[in-house]
From TrEMBL:
SUPFAM superfamilies xref list: MetI-like, Periplasmic binding protein-like II
Main subcellular location of this protein, as a coarse class: membrane
Ranges for domain ABC transmembrane type-1: 87-266
Family per similarity comment: In the C-terminal section; belongs to the OsmX family.
InterPro entries assigned: ABC_Gly_betaine_transp_sub-bd, MetI-like, MetI-like_sf
Species of origin: Streptomyces asiaticus subsp. ignotus
Signal peptide range: none
Subcellular compartments: Cell membrane; Membrane
Cell membrane found in the keyword field: yes
Keyword Transport on entry: yes
Membrane topology, record value: Multi-pass membrane protein
PANTHER family: GLYCINE BETAINE/PROLINE BETAINE TRANSPORT SYSTEM PERMEASE PROTEIN PROW (PTHR47737), GLYCINE BETAINE_PROLINE BETAINE TRANSPORT SYSTEM PERMEASE PROTEIN PROW (PTHR47737:SF1)
Name of the molecule in the record: ABC transporter permease/substrate binding protein
């Protein structure tokens, strides 16, 4: 019988849909991505323990006290293993996919229950959807929607829809026919019969279907991690790819906790929405033993709201779970433990710049100590030599009195921001007040007060001594002294109530972004000209600390940099200023080296600094090594690279569509020839960076009389009849199965086991430790040859083909999109020794510490950044 080309027809159909309905898929992608982003923002916003408390309260409301306690402990465990963000990503995926599924499944089930023809048509479609292997749905998902969240959600919707449709249809069909007939006999409209009779009675069955939809959605979104969907799926996939037991168990336990919570909550929800279930629940409570009533009691909505507030307060004060304070990392020990005392005024720009320099100095080997002071105390302490330097002097105007008094005992290290301005501001809803002159006429509107800040601040002195007398405000207004925090709190309260308020402010300040405010003009120039923000130090500081003084003298931030730094610190929260700084430095790669360059090793920004190439990589040692190496190099050049792991098929697909910009592990012209031939019209070969590779089968050297592939024949019993392989989609595996085994007559004697590179290496390690014979798929270069004594089996018939080179492959738009990076890659080359030592350094660092391994290797290869990515003027 001739072969039916069913797969080719489906492939043609998929291609036609992609080419002709791209507008529809783009629309779906936008909607789904928008839904996911919205839900994920809500889930990721609160502090982990706060949200855990709210979820636990929901469990209390639905099931009781004991499930609530267990739910809180479960989510606290997720936070403690630092998978909270991934868990919330997964929960967002489940909720979005579940809602979309239910929106379609329930109406379809209702339609099928009321029309047998529709039911007959839908049934085989549901059978197909439910029995098709879940992985298969990812393939068209990639073609239609690319890589990432959207294909995962769409595949999840398809996979999880059948039980929702089936259970809805079943529930409605099981409603007693006599009840429906009675409703019809009383003249009830069919729609009302459905809404008032059938759906209420069918709710327990429908809710069971909803429960199954949610559970199937959770199982599928984990699988969706294979195509780049965010969340625990990606964690589990990485653990599988690298055979990382710890990562796999932690990711798995997080999935289990989510699954149990969703299962119990959706099951219990039936008791709240179904009249039958509510009556059954009431009977259950009535029968409960008196001593156990507390376990069955469930709070009312008002009590639940009080619980939310209490849990929020408790969660805000707890820090025993999920701490992510990484601590300082010394990247260049310039300071050698020298202490530096930094003072600061508790103003936003002062906090931001101070904690920035605290972090930078710690990275350079100093031991800085920071302390907050009032302005007067700060200048006094600095003049007395108790404070080394500070970064928030507003000169020549605001702090003129302090500078005049102490300048003989201080050093001005220069300005790092300017010009600034001082002003009085009012909310924009206050009409008729545009200048300080207008303010004088409206004293009753503002209850005769202007809310100020710290009494020792230069702006407050200016207000009292010059501004208020200059505009006659001292007659009808009092200047309220307090603190910056108190002023901002009062502004927030008044703004929320739309009450008039006048406050002392300055620019730049994040308040102008948060509120709509009017800066009152100063036509008389009483506040003086705009200031610059200067760094001041005690006398003699520059001589004693020339390197730090040089860094501070060259220190500059523009408005965007300063406000984003302030925002990052605001987001981190009180007491976590340095964590906010670290987050900002991560978002601004290369900034630390720019502000505090190490003598003789300053990193230069590239011409395309700020560009964000998407780099894909396979879970293979040479690709992991080179990807993390280039990530480090690009960040030093001011780029913002993103990296993500894929399998071979997904990589080439994503690269051809432009979702992946570049990858460094193209084995050509042989191993990945099929992928190159298929996608080359949308790709560009940037060039080869490593020569003389080889594909081979290897055996331990203690296995005697096996020196070539021909020697394997007749020895299947020695090796258990198998050759341990790697990922089934790789070119080497296809060559081995399709050509090499047949060429040497081994195809009937041996079976090649599919798996992954880490799994193969784990099997090799176990067998080697026991001195057991094993034959594995390997390639050169590979660190296994230095760790174990192995024999590369000769290939006299050249069945594996010619040697490959390792090429850099990219999307066809890459050279124009990233011209500087493209130029670097064209000239890039690594020797066997360089690659082997880089791989070994990463191996020594351990899983999850690839960046540390790369940094250690780079420290041992000074000048490597300039060699790989030279910056020309």
């Amino acid at each position: 019988m001739p072969r039916l080309q069913l797969g080719d027809w489906i492939n043609s159909g998929v291609n036609w849909l992609r080419d002709n309905l791209s507008w529809l898929f783009d629309f779906i992608s936008s909607v789904v991505q928008g839904m996911y982003d919205g839900v994920n923002t809500v889930l990721s916003g609160p502090e982990p323990l706060l949200l855990a408390g709210i979820l636990a309260l929901l469990a209390w409301w639905l099931r009781g006290l004991l499930p609530a306690v267990l739910a809180f402990l479960g989510f606290a465990l997720i936070d403690s293993i630092e998978l909270w963000g991934e868990a919330m990503n997964t929960l967002a995926l489940v909720l979005v996919a579940g809602v979309i599924t239910i929106v379609f499944a329930v109406p379809l089930g209702i339609w099928a229950s009321r029309n047998r023809a529709v039911s007959a048509v839908i049934r085989p479609v549901l059978d197909f959807m439910q029995t098709m292997p879940a992985f298969v749905y990812l393939i068209p998902g990639i073609f239609f929607f690319g890589l990432g969240v959207v294909p995962g959600v769409v595949a999840t919707v398809i996979f999880s829809m059948p039980p929702g449709v089936r259970m809805t249809e079943l529930g409605i069909r099981q409603v007693d026919a006599e009840l429906v007939e009675a409703a019809d006999a009383f003249g009830t409209h069919p729609r009302r019969t459905l809404l008032r009779v059938q759906l209420p009675l069918a709710l327990p069955t429908i809710m069971a279907g909803v429960n199954q939809v949610i559970m199937l959605a959770l199982s599928m979104v984990v699988i969706a991690g294979m195509v780049g969907a965010e969340g625990l799926g990606s964690t589990v996939f990485q653990a599988i790819s690298s055979v990382d037991v710890a990562m796999g168990f932690e990711g798995g336990i997080a999935v289990v906790i989510l699954a149990m919570y969703l299962d119990r909550m959706t099951s219990a929800l039936n008791q709240r929405v179904s009249p039958l279930a509510r009556r059954a629940l009431a009977k259950e409570k009535a029968k409960a033993l008196s001593g156990l009533k507390v376990l069955h009691w469930r709070p009312a909505t008002s009590v639940a709201m009080v619980g939310v507030v209490v849990l929020a307060l408790v969660a805000g004060g707890m820090s025993m779970f999920g701490g992510d304070d990484e601590g300082p990392k010394v990247s260049a020990n310039v300071g050698k433990g020298q202490s530096v005392n930094i003072g600061y005024i508790n103003w936003d720009e002062g906090v931001a710049s101070t904690f920035l320099w605290k972090e930078l100095l710690e990275q350079r080997g100093f031991k800085p100590k920071v302390q907050s002071y009032d302005v007067g105390a700060l200048y006094t302490g600095m003049a007395a030599g108790n404070i080394d330097f500070e970064t928030d002097s507003w000169l020549p105007t605001t702090h003129a009195s302090y500078w005049s008094k102490y300048k003989s005992k201080l050093e001005n290290l220069g300005s790092w921001y300017g010009p600034t301005s001082l002003e009085v501001a009012v909310p924009s809803y206050v009409k008729g007040v545009k200048t300080l002159e207008d303010l004088e006429k409206k004293s009753s509107t503002f209850k005769k007060k202007i809310v100020g800040i710290e009494p020792g601040a230069g702006e407050m002195k200016l207000m009292q001594d010059k501004v208020m007398p200059g505009y006659g405000l001292n007659k009808n207004f009092s200047l309220v002294k307090g603190s910056t925090a108190a002023m901002l709190s009062q502004l927030d309260r008044s703004y929320a109530k739309k009450e008039p308020i006048a406050v002392t402010l300055w620019s730049p300040h994040w308040a102008y972004d948060k509120y709509k405010l009017t800066k009152l003009k100063d036509p008389k120039g009483a506040f003086g000209k705009g200031d610059h923000i200067d760094s001041l130090a005690r006398k003699g500081f520059s001589k004693e600390n020339p390197q730090v003084a040089k860094w501070i003298k060259n220190f500059k931030l523009d408005e965007k940099q300063l406000t984003s730094l302030e925002s990052a610190i605001q987001d981190a929260g009180k007491g976590k200023e340095q964590q906010g700084v670290r987050a900002w430095l991560k978002q601004n790669p290369g900034m630390a080296n720019k502000l505090a360059p190490v003598p003789g090793g300053a990193d230069q920004k590239g011409k395309d600094a700020g560009a964000a190439p998407m780099i894909g990589y396979f879970p293979w040692d040479e690709d992991i090594a080179t990807t993390y190496l280039w990530k480090n190099v690009l960040e030093r050049r001011g780029y913002k690279p993103e990296i993500k792991q894929y399998d071979v098929g997904s990589m080439f697909t994503g690269m051809s569509t432009g979702q992946v910009d570049v990858e460094f592990d193209g084995w050509l012209p042989v191993a990945q020839k099929q992928y190159w031939d298929r996608y080359k019209k949308n790709l560009v070969d940037v060039g080869s960076w490593y020569d003389k590779t080889s594909l081979e089968i290897a055996v331990p050297s203690y296995v005697k009389d096996v020196k070539s592939l021909a020697d394997l024949k007749g020895k299947a019993g020695t090796f258990g009849g198998k050759i341990v392989g790697i990922e089934p989609g790789t070119g080497e595996m296809k060559l081995l199965k399709g050509k090499v085994l047949k060429e040497y007559g081994l195809d009937k004697e041996y079976k090649v086991s599919d798996g992954s590179s880490p799994a193969m290496l784990a099997e090799l390690e176990r067998s080697y430790a026991k001195k057991e014979p094993v034959a594995v798929v390997l390639w050169t270069p590979h660190w296994a040859y230095s760790k174990y004594k192995l024999t590369k089996l000769a290939d006299p018939k050249k069945a594996f083909g010619a040697s490959n080179q390792l090429h850099t492959l990219a999307n066809k738009s890459f050279p124009k999109k990233f011209p500087e990076f493209n130029g670097w890659l064209k000239k890039w080359h690594m020797t066997e020794k360089e690659l082997a030592t880089l791989e070994q350094s990463i191996q020594d660092a351990g899983k999850g510490n690839e960046e540390k391994g790369v940094q250690k290797w780079m420290d041992a290869h000074p000048g490597i950044v300039d060699k790989m990515a030279p910056v020309t003027s």
